[in-house]
Design a protein that fits this description.
This protein is about 15% helix and about 55% strand. The chain is of the alpha+beta class and about 100 residues long. It has one domain. A five-stranded antiparallel β-sheet has the order 1-2-3-4-5, with helices on one face.
């Protein structure tokens, strides 16, 4: 059986998305890996083709919800990036990525 914190988190995300009638859900995938671990992948169209992508790897550690990896990506209908947040380390002082 899936851990209750994980069930609550996934249900909250799903219900929040469904509460907005002006969204189009391209993809909503919950990948349950273990009782305490899941991946969430969502693609939502907002305001006539703006795209929001959400990817999270989440796990329960010591009875707390913990995000192992994430990225949130939002772009307009011309595919121009509005924002992107992710858990990848950044190295601004390097000329090329490591």
């Amino acid at each position: 059986m899936l851990h209750e914190l994980l069930v609550h988190y996934l249900n909250t995300i799903e219900q929040t998305i469904l509460a907005y009638s002006d969204l189009y859900i391209d993809r909503y995938t919950e990948e349950i890996l273990t009782r305490d671990r899941a991946n969430l992948r969502i693609r939502i169209r907002i305001e006539q083709n703006n795209l929001l992508k959400i990817n999270e790897a989440i796990v329960i550690i010591d009875d707390r919800l913990t995000t192992l990896d994430y990225h949130y990506h939002y772009q307009n209908e011309q595919n121009q990036l509005i924002f992107r947040y992710d858990s990848t380390p950044h190295f601004p002082n390097l000329v090329t990525p490591p």
